[in-house]
């Protein structure tokens, strides 16, 4: 039985025709799926749970409504909070900085929950996809979008440097560091074709429905593979991205020294010989 998930600001479903696939929707369409503080915390907890759920092997992340995947930070709500408030306080500057740093680290951890999730995450973006949308999508494994999407690394327009992941991850996703600097420094809006050209997204679809459908199809294909192999592949790819080739090879050897003992290898090979679809135990 699949666990019950009831976060307030996210909708979690498990399509009956797609075994082992979870579909997570940002569920604040009336506010263009903009994020308030509780949503960050909910999302981190949600992806940590999905990571350990043996009934989940792949995840699709999308936004509810027709207008936006997410417009990012709810600036009005944030401006009334402690971090972005314009009010002066008598607090010592070093102590205030320490509190800010801890606050930022907590929010970074909520986004990193998508990346550290053991299960592959496919993000399906549409409409306005600003600020946090870039942070979230670069923490995911595969990015798809609709043709009407509008992207922006928006943070310089609200007076801050992007601090939740974009500046660290986006340069490793796309092939042009100069392009990353341009869009991050200008906050200009760019569309689906440009995103595809620079390698930010893997595919472009005509509308939101087709984008989500493609994401669910991809997730279903991934979920049909050995979970030992899939989760190991994600782990090793992420490790190798941040380390040298030799470090990556060494880590792969250690990882597979344990993982190759799985029964999934024999099951996959035998199914190929017998020309049938293999089945794999839960992990």
From TrEMBL:
GO terms for molecular function: delta(3,5)-delta(2,4)-dienoyl-CoA isomerase activity. It holds the Pfam family ECH_1. GO terms for biological process: fatty acid metabolic process. It is found in: Peroxisome. Pathway: Lipid metabolism; fatty acid beta-oxidation. The keyword Transmembrane does not apply. Belongs to the enoyl-CoA hydratase/isomerase family. This is Delta(3-5)-Delta(2-4)-dienoyl-CoA isomerase.
């Amino acid at each position: 039985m699949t666990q019950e998930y009831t976060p307030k600001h996210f909708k979690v479903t498990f399509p009956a025709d797609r075994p082992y696939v979870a579909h997570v929707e940002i569920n604040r369409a009336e506010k263009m799926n903009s994020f308030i503080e509780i949503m960050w915390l909910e999302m981190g907890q949600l992806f940590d749970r999905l990571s350990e759920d043996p009934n989940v092997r792949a995840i699709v992340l999308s936004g509810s409504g027709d207008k936006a995947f997410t417009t990012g930070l709810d600036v009005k709500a944030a401006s009334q909070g402690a971090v972005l408030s314009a009010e002066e306080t008598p607090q010592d500057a070093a102590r205030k900085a320490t509190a800010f740093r801890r606050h930022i680290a907590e929010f970074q951890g909520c986004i990193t929950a998508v990346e550290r999730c053991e299960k592959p995450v496919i993000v399906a973006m549409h409409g306005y996809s600003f600020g946090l949308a870039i942070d979230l999508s670069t923490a995911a494994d595969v990015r798809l979008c609709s043709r009407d999407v509008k992207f922006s690394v928006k943070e310089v327009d609200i007076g801050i440097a992007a601090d939740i992941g974009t500046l660290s991850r986006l340069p490793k996703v796309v092939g042009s560091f100069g392009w990353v600097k341009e869009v991050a420094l200008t906050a200009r809006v760019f569309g689906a074709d440009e995103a595809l050209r620079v390698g930010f997204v893997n595919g472009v679809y005509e509308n939101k429905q087709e984008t989500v459908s493609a994401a669910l199809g991809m997730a279903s294909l991934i979920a049909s593979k050995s979970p030992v192999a899939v989760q190991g592949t994600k782990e090793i790819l992420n490790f190798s991205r941040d380390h040298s080739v030799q470090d990556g090879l060494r880590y792969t050897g250690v990882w597979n020294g344990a993982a190759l003992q799985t029964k999934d290898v024999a099951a996959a090979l035998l199914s190929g010989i017998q020309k049938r679809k293999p089945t794999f135990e839960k992990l």
